């Protein structure tokens, strides 16, 4: 039976590399749905995939995860087209207006935390967030809440007795508990909305397993490592492309010490691709699956325990349900 796989943020970077890898493994028994906000780029990605896999079944779906109405209409469209969804990759993400703290970077270079700093970006990256037209913090809405609402809307095609479906979140090594606050889940008051949203996805994945495993729905999180994509190039927007190229030997050197430097989208998609082949029932809900690349360039996936607990995940889940109910109420009022 054909497997239906939906990937959000599939038009570039790690999402597109995942699609390419899935089709390279099996281009005929998959129905791949590229869920993207920019349809022009989505069409370009689709054309590229079909050039290398002419027999593949690739469909497009318009989805802006930062917009409540877009998520609801995309989910409606999925339910019309498919009666089940086997894999939902929750990959779309932003890190807007990143500020690179050069002083903290150089200080970190000569500290005992140098490897952690280089591997996780801890202490050197902050962002300026925005507010969406729905009144939500943009990073929270894009990276987490839009995906949460999508899952809720897609329950009828994700939850079936006697069959499993799998959610796979692209989280980050930058998901720090210290950036997340249960009293400020949208991260209105802080300067690390990205880290907060990624920690939130780790917590949510755990809560989803608690609430949905009995209905055949399983959730896992991965970290792609440090990958050169438009998201990472955005950290230093004024840095010319040739300087990034000059930095590559340094990055390969760093990879000798921290295998998190996966660098290419293909390598970064290793854990996403690996989980596609796993039985979701055998996966540990408290673990994050890391894409890693050795100094010699070999890819592998390593499970590492997450810094999450059931109690916090439950409180967070209840807060998301409350926010979902508020958002739906507002939407109804708008429509009247
Ligand atoms: N690169 C890294 O080192 C790294 C490390 C850890 C985690 N990650 C995570 O990996 C995921 C993929 O990022 P990437 O590195 O591959 O960067 P990327 O090339 O910029 O890909 C991000 C994707 O998300 C999409 N997207 C952004 N906002 C969206 C929205 N509101 N609705 C729908 N789609 C939206 C983008 O679409 P548009 O073309 O429309 O912008 C793009 O397809 C993200 O969740 C990111 O946080 C990346």
In short:
The chain is α/β, with parallel strands linked by helices and 336 residues long. It has helices at 13-25, 39-52, 68-81, 102-109, 114-120, 138-153, 155-158, 193-212, 230-233, 241-257, 265-268, 270-276, 310-335; strands at 3-8, 30-36, 57-62, 87-90, 98-100, 125-127, 165-170, 217-223, 287-293, 299-305.
What's the structural blueprint in terms of helices and strands?
Layout: E1 3-8, H1 13-25, E2 30-36, H2 39-52, E3 57-62, H3 68-81, E4 87-90, E5 98-100, H4 102-109, H5 114-120, E6 125-127, H6 138-153, H7 155-158, E7 165-170, H8 193-212, E8 217-223, H9 230-233, H10 241-257, H11 265-268, H12 270-276, E9 287-293, E10 299-305, H13 310-335
Parallel strand pairs: 1-2, 1-4, 2-3, 4-7, 7-8, 8-9
Antiparallel strand pairs: 5-6, 9-10
Helix pairs in contact: 3-6, 6-8, 8-13
This protein binds NADP nicotinamide-adenine-dinucleotide phosphate (NAP).
Keywords: Endoplasmic reticulum, Glycoprotein, Lipid biosynthesis, Lipid metabolism, Membrane, NAD, NADP, Oxidoreductase, Steroid biosynthesis, Transmembrane, Transmembrane helix
Pfam family, one: adh_short
GO biological process, one term: estrogen biosynthetic process
Q: Supply the number of helical segments.
A: 13
- What's the CATH first level? Alpha Beta
Spatial order of strands in the largest sheet: 3-2-1-4-7-8-9-10
Q: How large is the radius of gyration? A: 19 Å
The proportion of residues forming helix, as a percent range, comes to 40-55%
CATH architecture descriptor text:
3-Layer(aba) Sandwich
Structural class: alpha/beta
Rounded to the nearest angstrom, the distance between the terminal CA atoms is 43 Å
CATH superfamily: NAD(P)-binding Rossmann-like Domain
* pLDDT < 50 runs, ≥5 residues: none
Query: CATH topology, anyone?
Result: Rossmann fold
Q: Averaging pLDDT over every residue, what do you get?
A: 93
How many β strands by DSSP? 10
Largest sheet properties: 8 strands, mixed
Molecules bound to protein: NADP nicotinamide-adenine-dinucleotide phosphate
Estimate what percentage of residues fall within beta strands.
Answer: 15-25%
